[in-house]
Amino acid sequence: MDASSRGHTAAGASRGGFRAERAPDGRYRWQLKAPNGRVVAVTPAAYETAGEAERGFDGLRVAAEGLTARITHVRDGIGWIWVIPGSRALPEVRSSRAYERYATCQNAFRRFVVLLAKQPALELPELHELAERGPSLRTSDVH
């Protein structure tokens, strides 16, 4: 599927996996789906191109083992969400939904990290340099 139209899905991700989609504002956001088709993580950050969204996702994928989430209460309503802080004002990625219990939210983040690490590398030339440097994205555990 063309990245400039309805969305770009990584190979084999018809039910699960990475997907970059164009938002109504014309910018791109990505999401990660579990094999059962449920969206487990979304990026609130908007990217100018599908390629930028793919590079953002792949940077997280490369650094999956070192990621740490901030678990916080939702603003409006009841529940907990996990957030991986980004370098910009927006979170890099967050849970796609709120969880009733703190421990359930922690487990959901752990499952996200495992799923992220299992994702195949995207075929982006710039990412070969990133992979050679190793994981550079580190966040702190702030609750």
Poorly predicted tracts of residues: 1-13, 127-143
Total DSSP helices: 3
Strand content: 15-25%
User: Taking all residues together, what is the mean pLDDT?
Assistant: 79
Using the alpha-carbon principal axes, give the shape. Answer: globular
In what order do the strands lie side by side in the largest sheet? 1-2-3-4-7-6-5
Q: Helical residue percent?
A: 25-40%
The secondary-structure class comes to alpha+beta
* Strand element count: 7
The value of Rg in angstroms is 15 Å
Largest sheet: 7 strands, antiparallel
Order of helices and strands: EEEEHEEEHH
Please describe what this structure looks like.
The protein has 143 residues and is α+β, with helices and mostly antiparallel strands. The protein is 26% helix and 21% strand. It has helices spanning 50-62, 102-118, 127-133, and strands at 8-9, 17-22, 28-33, 39-42, 70-73, 80-84, 93-95. It has a seven-stranded antiparallel sheet with strand order 1-2-3-4-7-6-5, covered by helices on one side. A hairpin with a 6-residue loop joins β5 (70-73) and β6 (80-84). The chain is globular, with a radius of gyration of 15 Å.
